Amino acid sequence: MVTAFIMIKANTGEADRLREGIEAIDGVESAHIVAGDVDLIAKANVDSPAAVKDIAATHIQGVDGVEGTQTYIAMN
User: Fold this and answer.
1) d(Cα 13, Cα 2) in Å, to the nearest integer?
2) Most exposed residue of 12, 27, 44, 51, measured as fewest CB within 10 angstroms of its CB?
3) Does residue 76 register a pLDDT over 90?
4) With contact defined as beta carbons under 8 Å apart, do 43 and 8 qualify?
């Protein structure tokens, strides 16, 4: 199992709407609105690094209102 944390930058005022949509993506365990350099952090648990890429690059970045993402794969 691969655990990843995806930092998400949202357009102004979009964080609440985006959180619900991101949590609905298969493989995303949770999504939280946060303060700081990013607007949301999503936690994904999937079978492979390729699945992490699919979630971040295809599904999350494809959501209208997402400006960008940074993905971190947990090492433990």
Assistant:
1) 31
2) 12
3) no
4) no
Cα–chain center distance at 37: 14
Has this prediction a pTM greater than 0.70? yes
Identify the helix (H) or strand (E) that includes residue 71: strand 66-73
Q: What is the pLDDT of residues 18-74, one digit of tens each?
A: 999 999 999 999 999 999 999 999 999 999 999 999 999 999 999 999 999 999 999
Number of residues that make up the chain = 76
Name the phi and psi angles at 18, rounded to 5. -65, -40
Distance of CA 2 to the CA centre of its chain: 14
Amino acid identity at 51: A
What's the distance, CA 42 to chain centroid? 4
Amino acid at 25: I
∠ Cα 3 76 55 (to 5°): 15
